[in-house]
Amino acid sequence: MSLRSFGTTFVLGGVRSGKSRFAEQLVVSGGLERHYVATGRAWDEEMRSRIDTHKADRGDLWHTHEEPLDLVGCLQAIDGEGRAILVDCLTLWVTNLMMEERDMVAEFASLAACVLTARARLVIVSNEVGLGIVPENRMAREFRDHAGRLHQMIAAEAADVYFIAAGLPLKMKG
Predict the structure, then answer these.
(1) Model confidence pLDDT, tens digit, residues 39-55
(2) Residue ranges of the binding site
């Protein structure tokens, strides 16, 4: 099967909205070989605990790939028919790219191209950060702007787009 027959699903929502759980259920219900690409970094003990909890909640039925920067390279390495790949999440990836002063335009374009050529079913999760007030500092505003541009690119390529609030999915596209 190809992306054209499966399509990519993009899942957006706020913090603790239920978006990751919803995305995981989409993958599990598909019956394909499960791959989980985690983009988060454990910058402190609290984040390390969150990552450990996510791993434990998923259990042993997932192949976990931790990739904070080379998301496209990771996706290309594990792509294949009969697989489902869950990416969680794009906003953590954006943070990592910003911290490493990467070329955001090039990275985003590369990911959008990868989405179009993937043979696996992709389910991509991200935090919607554009619904709040304008951040008070430049870096936070740049982060919000980068995330918004990336979300638009991925939503344009995705077959299905969901917004999750209070654990409830709202289908926005597809």
Answers:
(1) 988 888 988 888 888 88
(2) 13-20, 38-40, 55-58, 66, 88
Q: Is 42 helix (H, G, I), strand (E, B) or coil?
A: coil
* Domain assignment of residue 3, yes or no: no
Number of domains within the chain:
1
Looking at residue 121, the DSSP 8-state letter turns out to be E
| Residue-wise pLDDT tens digits, 65-104 | 999 999 999 999 999 999 999 999 999 999 999 999 999 9
Catalytic residue among 54, 65, 146, 151: 54
pTM: 0.92
CATH for 115: 3.40.50.300
Q: Is 146 a catalytic residue?
A: no
Instruction: List binding-site positions for GTP.
Output: 13-20, 38-40, 55-58, 66, 88
3 state SS of 168: strand
Element (H, E) at 169: strand 168-173
| Residues 174, 146: Cα–Cα separation, whole Å | 24
Give the structural domain span for 39: 9-173
